[in-house]
Amino acid sequence: MPIMNIHLKDDCFSEAQISELLEQSSQYYCEVLECPIDRVRVFINTYPGNRMAVKGKVCSDPDDKGAPYFEFILLEGRPVDQVQQLIEKFTGLIASVLQVEQNLVRGACWPVHPAHWGIGGVPASMLRAGEIAARTNKSDT
């Protein structure tokens, strides 16, 4: 279920940087959440500079890399420390790979109730009931 979207200014980063970002983000998800790689999805969304603003200014300057923003989705019930670890790791990765100032990177986690997430047309609350229960029991101890 782990899904991530990274929003970037178009034409600022090499294909090698984009590939590294996609692959490393996927690995971080697996490490922190202890989940199989086949569940992970990471997407890069790009925008022309004249279609985004940072600090109230349109990013039309070709040398301006914008300010990367990421968001990721997790099923509700994940421990807060995992969410915070992912925010920290994703922020550092984006800043390092894209060579942007870390304080310009923003990110958010969007928790989704398992009944509101589908996997192959089946609610996660049904398909992954055992995993969700185990995670809940683990956080109670």
Could you write a compact summary of the structure shown?
With 141 residues, the protein is an alpha/beta fold. The protein has helices spanning 15-33, 80-98, 124-127, 129-140, and strands at residues 3-9, 41-47, 53-54, 57-58, 69-75, 106-112, 118-119, 122-123.
Count of folded domains: 1
Query: CATH fold name, please?
Result: Macrophage Migration Inhibitory Factor
Number of contiguous helices? 4
Assign the structural class, choosing from mainly alpha, mainly beta, alpha/beta, alpha+beta, or little secondary structure. alpha/beta
The end-to-end span amounts to: 25 Å
How would you describe the shape? Answer: elongated
Poorly predicted sequence stretches spanning 5 or more consecutive residues = none
Helix/strand order, N-terminal first = EHEEEEHEEEHH
CATH class: Alpha Beta
Mean pLDDT: 90
Describe the fold and architecture:
The chain has about 140 residues and is of the alpha/beta class. The protein has one domain (about 5-115): Macrophage Migration Inhibitory Factor, CATH 3.30.429. It has helices spanning about 15-35, 80-100, 125, 130-140; strands spanning about 5-10, 40-45, 55, 55-60, 70-75, 105-110, 120, 120-125. A 4-stranded mixed sheet has the order 2-1-5-6, covered by helices on one side. Strands 3-4 form a two-stranded antiparallel sheet. Strands 7-8 form a two-stranded antiparallel ribbon. Helix 1 (about 15-35) packs antiparallel against helix 2. The longest helix has 19 residues, at about 15-35. It is elongated and about 50 Å long. The chain starts with a strand and ends with a helix. The mean pLDDT is about 90.
